[in-house]
Design a protein that fits this description.
This protein is mainly α and 115 residues long. Helices cover 83% and strands 0% of the residues.
Length: 115
């Protein structure tokens, strides 16, 4: 018997009941777990971004309200300055969170820590 024939005899056919189990035993079972972790992580990241956007919109509305009720230019400058400073801090913090979540996903191959 040739080596080609012996390989064909050992390979499971696509329709055989043990083919899927053989693939899982060959390592595809862990791929399914990684896929689930990947989807879960993407969902976590999407929720994080949606929460951040909601917080930023609240901050925008609050600032607009303060500007509409300010009495002089100095107060308006303080409001605008605080708004910019707060926005920069929040964007920086959010970027850090998303980078950490991404690194956890790519470096460990698992869902990021949700703490």
């Amino acid at each position: 018997m040739t080596s080609k024939q012996s390989r064909e005899d050992k390979a499971p056919s696509a329709g055989s009941p043990g083919a899927f189990a053989d693939l899982q035993n060959a390592g595809f079972g862990t791929m399914m777990g990684v896929h689930a972790a990947w989807l879960e992580s993407l969902g976590d990241m999407s929720a994080e971004v949606a929460g951040f956007i909601a917080d930023r919109i609240k901050e925008d509305v609050k600032t607009q309200h303060e500007i509409l009720h300010c009495r002089d230019m100095e107060e308006m400058q303080r409001i605008q300055s605080r708004f910019i400073e707060t926005a920069l801090e929040q964007y920086q913090a959010e970027t850090g969170k998303l980078v950490e979540m991404s690194l956890a996903l790519f470096t460990k191959g698992q869902a990021p820590d949700r703490s």
